[in-house]
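job 3f2a | input accepted
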Amino acid sequence: DIYFAEKDGRLTDAALRAIDAAAGVLRTCDVRRVQVLGLADATGGSEANMTLSQRRAPAVAEALTGAGLPAPAFDVSAGGDAGAPTAHGLAEPLPRRTEVVVDARPR
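job 3f2a | predicted structure (107 res):
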């Protein structure tokens, strides 16, 4: 998972370091598929949260591609605040993330 600041779709320095570290390992593998799902917390309206998660997922996918993962392997989607555990709009860091699932095999 790659985490974001509240109401922000930009990658943090920590997120970029995590992406670079993961990509370093994955460059030694045959990457078959990378699923990237952008998520948001329940703060704000659902439409704004969907827009935010639509910014987060491609930001992570582009950073992974830039780090050397094959672009055709990506499946990028957004989930907005669907399933966010804070029904009362409380700011929780856990949903402010992009989930990344990689299907890869050693070369």
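job 3f2a | The two ends are 24 Å apart (CA to CA).
job 3f2a | closed
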